[in-house]
Automatic annotation (TrEMBL):
Residues 9-453 form the Major facilitator superfamily (MFS) profile domain. PANTHER family: BLR6921 PROTEIN (PTHR42718:SF46), MAJOR FACILITATOR SUPERFAMILY MULTIDRUG TRANSPORTER MFSC (PTHR42718). It comes from the Bacteria. It comes from Clostridium saccharobutylicum DSM 13864. It is found in: Cell membrane. Keywords: Cell membrane, Membrane, Transmembrane, Transmembrane helix, Transport. Its main location: membrane. The keyword Nuclease does not apply. The chain crosses the membrane at residues 7-32, 75-94, 100-121, 133-159, 165-183, 195-215, 221-246, 267-291, 297-316, 357-384, 396-414, 426-447. This is Tetracenomycin C resistance and export protein TcmA. The keyword Transport applies. GO terms for cellular component: plasma membrane. One of its GO terms (molecular function) is transmembrane transporter activity. It is a multi-pass membrane protein.
Length: 468
């Protein structure tokens, strides 16, 4: 494949990926307008966001496995088609119930698009270029996740909330055309066509119950029988899933992947990153609006500083990795993100926008260095044919971290408010907690098994020689 085809193919994948990931955050800032339009409560309107995230979390691993079996290109296109149609339906919804249903369809489609994007990208370029491509992929990942508030604020300010869904339609159509014309089909050659039905059922139940419990924990109470019962069902389903995967001949998830410390440590670190990033975007958005008194557009534009910095440092991470190592680079990134959370704890109502932007630059540089490097390192230590399912697992862990981050930080914040703390002090304490939570990620990034990683690379080298 020549360079022109490579660039166009990668652009097609990034269009779909960016569109799906952007919709995880772009809706947040329009919720007040939706609440007013549908004449409902914030508790009910929150399911416009929750339905999307819940559907995505439940389907991620299943989507990656099915794409490995039946074709990544086919299911990527199917995902983009469903996402585009459901975006149109969301935009024309005249009831909250219809909007939530169509957002659920969007979430299912997003699971296919997001998890297939990475293995499709690795098929376009030769192995020696893949680390650079992963850095670019990480850059767009950070940009999409963090730029949602600013894009949502701009669209809502000058148009209306329906337009945040309509803008997906031309993007989706372009993505479909380019993918059909320029991208080749790819599979996992070791995967059979047999579907691990009970594996899909048990992991879906486990993910649904866990994610749903986290979403409802702040409303129902962490120790309530309602929440505990969902946690219990999730744990039982997860245990059954592991038992099934150990016994079946062709498991949905090859548990042998977790024998690789770079993969396991990287997945745990991505979970902590997803959790920590919530304090940099979700929690800080509330601070800017609730404490500083900014409107949604101004708050979104300030937070976009983090996304732009993240994109720049994702690209720079490849240079730093060559001078240091992937482990040190990712650990440095997590440290910077933790430092930014701690610095946020000193913010007050009188803090200038410049002070806030400087902290967001630190957070963005940390996110860019750690996210891109971790993804590249994980994929370098996974057999090529297993990149699809590995991508699904990593996206799942990061999504869980994000959902837990929202639930945990809201609980910490509201519990401090009930203890007669001021808004500023409650935010300060919550930011400090997020800084501490990120610290174990530094250890997971630093202490990976060099020998195991080296052995796996040697094994892949031998396999490549055998293939020749």
């Amino acid at each position: 494949m020549n360079k022109k085809y490579q660039i166009i193919s990668f652009a097609a994948i990034i269009l779909g990926f960016f569109m799906a990931l952007l919709d995880t955050t772009v809706v947040n800032i329009t919720l007040p307008k939706m609440t007013e339009y549908f004449n409902t409560t914030m508790n009910h309107i929150s399911w416009v966001v929750n339905a999307y995230n819940l559907a995505t979390a439940v389907i991620l691993v299943t989507a990656s496995r099915l794409s490995d079996q039946f074709g990544r290109k086919k299911l990527f296109i199917a995902g983009v088609v469903l996402f585009t149609i459901s975006s149109l339906l969301c935009g024309i919804s005249n009831s909250l119930q219809a909007l939530i249903i169509f957002r659920t369809l969007q979430g299912i489609a997003a699971a296919f698009v997001v998890t297939i994007a990475m293995p499709l990208s690795t098929e376009i370029f030769p192995p020696e270029k893949r680390r650079t491509i992963m850095a670019l992929w990480g850059a767009f990942s950070g940009l999409a996740a963090a730029s949602g508030p600013s894009i949502g604020g701009i669209v809502t300010q000058f148009f209306n909330w329906r337009c945040i869904f309509f803008i997906n339609i031309p993007i989706g159509c372009i993505c479909i055309i380019l993918t059909m014309k320029f991208i080749k089909e790819s599979y996992d050659p070791t995967a059979s066509k047999n579907i691990d039905f009970w594996g899909i059922v048990t992991i879906s139940i486990a993910m649904f119950c866990l994610t749903f419990a986290l979403m409802k924990s702040n409303e129902k109470g962490w120790a309530s029988s309602f929440i505990l019962s969902f946690f219990a069902v999730s744990a039982i389903a997860l245990i059954l899933f592991v038992i099934i995967e150990l016994k079946v001949k062709e498991p949905m998830v090859p548990l042998s992947l977790f024998k690789s410390l770079p993969f396991t440590n990287g997945s745990i670190t991505l979970f902590l990153l997803g959790l920590g990033m919530m304090s940099g975007t979700y929690l800080l958005s509330f601070f800017l609006i609730q404490v500083k008194g900014l409107n949604q557009l101004s708050a979104g534009l300030i937070i976009s500083t983090m996304s732009l910095t993240s994109m720049i440092f994702s690209i720079l991470s490849t240079i730093l990795t060559k001078k240091l190592s992937s482990r040190l680079t990712s650990a440095l990134g997590i440290l910077l993100l933790s430092v930014s959370c701690y610095l946020n704890s000193s913010l007050t109502q009188n803090s200038s926008n410049t002070d806030i932007i400087l902290r967001l630059i630190v957070a963005g540089s940390g996110t860019g260095l750690s996210m891109a490097t971790l993804i590249g390192s994980i994929m370098a230590n996974v057999p090529v044919e297993k990149i699809g399912i590995a991508s699904g697992i990593n996206n799942m862990t990061r999504t869980l971290g994000t959902v837990l981050g929202v639930a945990l930080f809201l609980t910490i914040f509201t519990s401090n408010m009930t203890a007669q703390m001021s808004d500023v002090k409650a935010f300060s304490f919550t930011f400090k907690v997020s800084a501490v939570i990120l610290l174990p990620g530094i250890l997971f990034a630093l202490f990976s098994d060099k020998k195991r990683s080296h052995d796996m690379k040697n094994k892949r080298f031998v396999e490549n020689i055998d293939n020749v």
